[in-house]
TrEMBL record:
Pfam families: Epimerase. InterPro entries: Epimerase_deHydtase, Lipid_A_modif_metabolic_enz, NAD(P)-bd_dom_sf. Residues 5-241 form the NAD-dependent epimerase/dehydratase domain. This is Nucleoside-diphosphate-sugar epimerase. SUPFAM superfamilies: NAD(P)-binding Rossmann-fold domains. It comes from the Bacteria. It comes from Conexibacter arvalis.
Length: 324
């Protein structure tokens, strides 16, 4: 079995992915700076059999140690999301672009057989007609620093700047759901938490569209790419999600209210939203046979059950956000 390096392996998607890869019999090495205080998660991954390197992917010596002897690389490590990148533009450029490309070149030089890069459907930005699902061939129109950085790396990986690298770029829908490294700063999770807590939820631009994918399904998609033949994935871009899982914010609220009567919702009309898009996920289903297993309503039920059970004594704690 191959050995797989997962950067950001103690993160929201990363923990789910590492657990799934270990279950396949792979050797798994994690590189993570544990920015959000995930030492307990790192120890848990070690107990399951993963090797964990606590370090910064921007450090060349750390990258060299992490890449030594690995066959596959999944690059998840990043400053994730528009607010976090806007807070530190230089730092996000250094991590999200410079370190990603350095890692890619070094992985190529080390002879890795597969390099999976985590990108985002936010790359599509504001569509001329958001009611028509966009495919991987559609125009990229990033409107945030985060998406702009992801597009820059995608183009470098697939456009010959890192020539000879067996790369695949995965554009993830907005992620949601219960995970070992929990996040409540993501739309589905945040809306569910606030209504569960009987708070008032203020929703801006309820009519705008986004696609959504459960974190376990995001991890499954990566595993699917790692197991696929080269001809199906090398040099390819895949949207990751399900075509039926495009929702407006209004739809999300109604799905939560169908499962709890708590909370109050007010809507703030916005006539313009720079990110308004529906996404097609037909390619990943047709080419790789990948279909998501969870739906947003199911994920909402899972979140409500976890909150009821006291899994998160203080779901507003800074550890559950990318900006504490």
């Amino acid at each position: 079995m191959p050995t797989t390096l997962v950067t950001g392996g103690a993160g929201y998607i990363g923990c789910c992915l590492v657990e799934q890869l270990l279950a396949t019999g792979r050797g798994v090495r994690v590189l993570d700076i544990l920015l959000h205080g995930q030492e307990d998660l790192a120890r848990g991954l070690e107990e399951q059999g993963a090797e964990v390197i606590r370090g910064d992917v921007r450090d060349a010596s750390v990258r060299a140690r992490a890449l030594d002897g690995v066959d596959e690389v999944v690059h998840l490590a990043a400053i994730v999301g528009d607010p976090a990148c806007a807070r530190d533009p230089e730092g996000s450029q250094a991590l999200n672009v410079d370190a990603a490309l350095a890692l890619a070149r070094e992985a190529r030089d080390g002879g890795v057989r597969r390099f999976v890069f985590a990108s985002t459907c936010s790359n599509y930005g504001r569509m001329a007609d958001p009611t028509v699902p966009i495919t991987e061939e559609g125009e990229l129109a990033p409107v945030s620093l985060y998406a702009t950085q992801k597009v820059e790396v995608e183009r470098a990986l697939l456009g010959g700047v890192v020539e000879g690298l067996p790369a695949t770029c995965l554009r993830f829908a907005t992620v949601y759901g219960v995970a070992p490294r929990m996040r409540f700063d993501l739309t589905v999770n945040e809306f569910t938490r606030d209504l569960w807590a009987d708070r008032e939820l203020e929703v801006f631009g309820e009519q705008f569209w986004r696609p959504y994918v459960h974190t376990r399904d995001a991890a499954r998609a990566i595993r699917t790419v790692l197991d696929a033949p080269d001809a199906d994935v090398v040099g390819e871009v895949y949207n990751v999600g399900r075509s039926g899982e495009n929702y407006r914010k209004l739809d999300l609220v109604e799905a939560i209210q169908a499962q709890t009567s708590r909370g109050k919702v007010t809507y703030v009309r916005r006539d313009e939203d720079p990110r308004d898009y529906k996404v097609s996920f037909d390619k990943v289903r047709a080419r790789l046979g990948f279909e998501t297993e969870s739906t947003v309503p199911e994920g909402i039920g899972e979140l409500l059950e976890a909150l009821d059970a006291g899994a998160y004594p203080d779901p507003w704690d800074g550890r559950y956000r990318n900006i504490p």
